[in-house]
């Protein structure tokens, strides 16, 4: 098996992809609540692979999502439908279901149908009764996610019913003309009714992470070790997610083809949902979005300078260090400190701090934790010192401009010049005062923002426990940034991708991660990264790329290992990285960038094509 082959779990998927069962399909509907609606990771999956889907399906490919006006105004272009699509939209309008037809403004510009699915409470209650009557799924009142799943699922079902009259069963080939691919339980409830009504539609369901698994993993450090001993029904009751779990199981068992995104999540699906996935569909990335030809090294240097500016504003008021011997390391992701491995990162950083001291390695490591939490504001001290640094920079630029304009003609004449005498007294005074204003007596803060629950925050609690307080003699510094990095932030003036390009290493040693886009994004930008064997991406890399360590992608062993053993391994890897000279780091980034194409949708998209073909085969009469 070559590195680009998919981890196929069903022999039927190994057919020649050119012998496509889906050639007779007139329309593929890809359904998700995150179409034209950025909420989580599924948005990234569908968005990034859209060009690959359009390449195969053309105008037959259509994404289906909810109409959210604030998001649609940014991402959706309404266009008048024609042909069968016009008949579909008009038929739904007659059925009092408003559907917006247009195109998603992303690569490939796929056709999109956005549905106004909200219903009155009386209708919602009726739909809940039908759900119980047909599938014995009881749903509580007042849960917005369950209500969204029900109302959106009913709207999608109505759309598919109408579509099946416009594109009916292909009697000649005994195959369906329609294929519907659903993502997650929130967007998949229509599957159960499609199966019950025996609509002539081939169906695929992809779960990106089981809902119950995410709850259990947050509270069980040995989740995968205990997985096969769990009573899924009892666990659903324990975590008060019986309805959501039942909906997810109905989706999994109702689809012709059940898929997930990684082999590690496939274990979870089999144990908790009671169905072994027919295929694993690894998530890819659109490399074109990140491809900057041979400029990625130049961009690294450019954006590293911007991170230097943050570092000077944050640390230099208290003390300074050599920026030429400073490494920027970061982790990022949803605020799930244990699942995302924030705790393990901090433990490893504390060990690295001691090792750098013990071995006398003259490097400084600034470690960023980037996530999002409710905050009151940017920390006043952080904001004030950044403002003073900006003023100091403007003063220096003004002095250089003034000196430069007068220096050149005098130098051309061969005059001897005292540079100090050429500085305007006003700017010299501004310079001294601004330098003085920048100084601070305290230690640099470990957090950039003011939290509502500072004393209870697990990340801050762990930092305090490890006593990582950014002391002058500590070579490892910590910056906890509980907000997105954006160009509008007064601390950054850059976006997240630019921040990643400016860093030296991304570390993501997750304890629970069905896939994990963050290390994949690093690879796409030529940045070495660390993942774990408890992350779907890490398992995929371990299975397919035996020499991944040689080209800058390390898979940390966490499965069946203690927290502290894994932390020690991570610290050892980071110490080895700190020992690299600049030339070695450049060579490593070159190797990382060279392997990025292995994860492009142009290679991984074929797994979706094979799953679609299998669904059509299984739907044949």
Spell out the key features of this protein.
621 residues, Rossmann fold, 3 domains, nine-stranded mixed beta sheet, six-stranded parallel beta sheet
Concise account of the structure shown:
With 621 residues, this protein is α/β, with parallel strands linked by helices. The chain has 26 helices and 17 strands. A 9-stranded mixed beta sheet has the order 3-4-5-2-1-6-7-8-9, sandwiched between helices.
Describe the structure in your own words.
The protein has 621 residues and is of the alpha/beta class. It has 3 domains: 245 residues, Rossmann fold (3-Layer(aba) Sandwich); 246 residues, Rossmann fold (3-Layer(aba) Sandwich), CATH 3.40.50.2000; 63 residues. It contains 26 helices and 17 strands. The strands form 3 sheets. It has a 9-stranded mixed beta sheet with strand order 3-4-5-2-1-6-7-8-9, sandwiched between helices. The longest helix has 33 residues. It starts with 26 loop residues before the first strand and ends with a helix.
Largest sheet: 9 strands, mixed
Q: What overall form do the CA principal axes indicate?
A: globular
What CATH first level of the largest domain would be assigned?
Alpha Beta
Total count of strands: 17
Distance between the termini: 34 Å
Evaluate the radius of gyration. Answer: 28 Å
Q: Which fold name corresponds to the CATH topology of the largest domain?
A: Rossmann fold
Number of helices: 26
Widest β-sheet, arrangement of strands: 3-4-5-2-1-6-7-8-9
Q: Which structural category do the helix and sheet elements fall into?
A: alpha/beta
Low-confidence stretches: 1-19
- What is the residue-mean pLDDT, rounded to a whole number? 91
Strand content is: 5-15%
- The CATH superfamily of the largest domain bears the name Glycogen Phosphorylase B
Name given to the CATH architecture of the largest domain: 3-Layer(aba) Sandwich
Helical content band:
40-55%
Q: How many domain regions? A: 3
């Amino acid at each position: 098996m070559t590195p680009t082959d998919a981890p196929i779990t069903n022999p039927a998927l190994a057919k020649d992809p050119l012998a496509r069962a889906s050639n007779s399909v007139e329309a593929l509907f890809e359904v998700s609540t995150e179409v034209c609606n950025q909420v989580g990771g599924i948005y990234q999956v569908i968005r990034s692979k859209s060009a690959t889907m359009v390449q195969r399906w053309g105008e037959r490919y259509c994404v289906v999502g909810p109409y959210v006006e604030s998001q649609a105004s940014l991402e959706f272009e309404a266009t008048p439908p024609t042909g069968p699509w016009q008949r579909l939209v008009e038929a739904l309008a007659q059925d009092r279901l408003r559907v917006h037809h247009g195109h998603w403004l992303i690569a490939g510009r796929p056709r999109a149908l956005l549905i106004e699915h909200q219903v009155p409470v009386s209708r919602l209650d009726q739909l809940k009764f039908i759900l119980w009557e047909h599938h014995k799924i009881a749903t509580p009142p007042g849960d917005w996610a369950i209500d969204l799943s029900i109302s959106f699922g009913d709207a999608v079902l109505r759309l598919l019913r109408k579509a099946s009259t416009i594109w009916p069963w292909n009697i000649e080939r005994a195959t369906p003309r329609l294929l519907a691919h659903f993502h997650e339980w929130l967007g998949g409830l229509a599957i159960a009714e499609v199966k019950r009504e025996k609509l002539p539609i081939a169906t695929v369901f992809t779960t990106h992470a089981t809902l119950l698994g995410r709850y259990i993993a947050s509270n069980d450090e040995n989740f995968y070790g205990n997985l096969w001993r769990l009573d899924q029904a009892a666990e659903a009751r324990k975590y008060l997610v019986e309805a959501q779990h039942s909906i997810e199981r109905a989706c999994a068992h109702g689809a012709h083809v059940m898929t997930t995104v990684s082999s590690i999540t496939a274990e979870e699906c089999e144990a908790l949902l009671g169905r072994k996935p027919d295929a694993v569909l690894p998530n890819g990335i659109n490399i074109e979005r990140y491809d900057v030809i041979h400029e990625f090294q130049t961009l690294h240097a450019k954006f590293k300078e911007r991170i230097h500016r943050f570092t000077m504003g944050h640390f230099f008021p208290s003390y300074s260090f050599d920026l030429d011997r400073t490494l920027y390391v970061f982790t990022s992701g949803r605020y799930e400190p244990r699942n995302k491995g924030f705790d393990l990162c901090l433990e490893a950083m504390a060990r690295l701090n001691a090792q750098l001291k013990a071995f006398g390695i003259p490097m400084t490591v600034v470690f960023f934790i980037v996530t999002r939490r409710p905050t009151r504001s940017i920390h006043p001290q952080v904001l004030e010192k950044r403002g003073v640094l900006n003023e100091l920079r403007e003063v220096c630029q003004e002095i250089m401009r003034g000196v430069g304009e007068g220096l050149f003609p005098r130098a051309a004449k061969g005059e001897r010049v005292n540079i100090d005498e050429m500085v305007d007294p006003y700017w010299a005074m501004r310079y001294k005062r601004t330098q003085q204003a920048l100084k601070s007596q305290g230690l640099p803060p470990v957090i950039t923002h003011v939290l509502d629950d500072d004393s209870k925050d697990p990340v801050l609690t762990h930092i305090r426990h490890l006593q990582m307080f950014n002391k002058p003699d500590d070579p490892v510094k910590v910056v906890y940034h509980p907000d997105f990095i954006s160009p509008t932030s007064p601390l950054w003036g850059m976006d997240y991708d630019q921040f990643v390009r400016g860093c030296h290493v991304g570390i993501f040693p997750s304890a629970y991660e069905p896939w994990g886009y963050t290390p994949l994004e690093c690879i796409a930008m030529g940045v070495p990264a660390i993942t774990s064997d408890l992350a779907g991406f890490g398992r995929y890399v371990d299975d397919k790329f035996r020499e991944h360590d040689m080209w800058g992608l390390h898979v940390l062993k966490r499965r069946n290992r203690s927290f502290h053993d894994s932390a020690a391994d991570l610290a050892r890897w980071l110490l080895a990285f700190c020992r690299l000279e600049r030339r070695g780091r450049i060579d490593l980034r070159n190797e990382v960038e060279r392997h990025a194409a292995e994860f492009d949708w142009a290679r991984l998209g074929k797994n979706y094509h094979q799953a679609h073909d299998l669904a059509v085969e299984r739907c044949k009469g």
